Amino acid sequence: MDPYCLKKLNQERRARRAALLLTDLGDGRDRVIKEGDPVAGPLGIAINQAFLSGGSTVAEIDGRSFFLNVHLPPPRLVVIGAVHISQALASMAKIAGYDMEIIDPRTAFATPERFPDVSLFAEWPQDILQTRPLDPYTAVAAVTHDPKIDDLPLERAVNAGCFYVGALGSRKTHAKRVDRLKSLGLSDEQIGSIHSPIGLDIGAASPAEIAVAIMGEVIKAFRARGLRTALQLEKTA
């Protein structure tokens, strides 16, 4: 690999941005393509599909062979609230291959005894998110039911383009949340991207079942991210 390409790949990895090393198998030349970089035609469609799947592949384009080596940031799940649902989510996220973090300033809930082997921050979300910013490869689930804790990270998550943003609460609770988020400057479209009630509609009742519903919706959102863009590229190719 060209040392310059390696340097660029490492820069993207450190910044938690997706990148792809495109190698022309005919002449061996390669280049780094960042997710979102414009690439026209069938090659652009193949690149976008590779980013969506996360799997490296060989593409045959106009009689030429290209190796698409994809490097995606590990998906991250940030849970706002050290509650019973979060305890169940911790083991599910680990099985699904997600790095999970829990943020809750309530020290009576955010304890290592309740959350062993989990990145736990017993601080206010606005303080933690200054040093651990959200990004498009992060999912955020707000489950405290406390506006003082939940609202700001929801606003940050939407503005950061997180692939999933969900909030616990009934439709009545969410209606009040909508008014608060509007006061923080979010548009109707942005607020509409928040999943509430949170989780897939499977009739979940217990904390463990709600955790299953949340994890399922997170995985669904991750696998569908950017799909609309890919379809648009296919139509215009």
From TrEMBL:
Chain ranges of the XdhC Rossmann domain: 77-218
InterPro entries, per the entry: MoCofactor_Util/Proc, XdhC_Rossmann_dom
A UniProt-annotated Pfam family: XdhC_C
Protein name: XdhC/CoxF family protein
